[in-house]
Amino acid sequence: APANFQSLKSRSKSDWELLVAVTHGVLFSPMHGWRGRLTDEQIKDVLAYIRLMAPFDAVS
């Protein structure tokens, strides 16, 4: 199943953890790495998109 970017587990990952997952893939999962398939700029765009998928916390 695809990652749920709205889950607490996904939202709590650091930018570095997401960068490593997108670039190199996730061991023992169907998520393969995108290094060599996407440029560094495209990978940064993917990370920005993942962050947009997470709900915003309400600020009082």
Could you describe the 3D structure shown?
- The protein is an all-alpha fold and 60 residues long.
- It has one domain.
- The chain is 47% helix and 0% strand.
- The chain has 3 helices and no strands.
- Helix 2 packs across helix 3.
- It is globular and about 35 Å long.
- The model has no long low-confidence stretch (mean pLDDT 84).
Concise summary:
This protein has 60 residues and is mainly alpha-helical.
What is the fold's blueprint, element by element?
Blueprint: H1 8-11, H2 15-24, H3 40-53
Q: Return residue spans where pLDDT drops below 50 for at least 5 consecutive residues.
A: none
Query: How many distinct helices?
Result: 3
Encode the helix/strand succession as letters: HHH
Provide the helix percentage.
40-55%
Q: Approximately how much beta-strand content do the residues carry?
A: under 5%
Number of strands: 0
Q: What is the first-to-last residue Cα distance?
A: 35 Å
- What is the global morphology? globular
Overall tally of domains? 1
Largest sheet: none
The Rg value, from CA coordinates, equals 12 Å
Task: State mean pLDDT (0 to 100 scale).
Answer: 84
The helix-and-strand class reads: mainly alpha
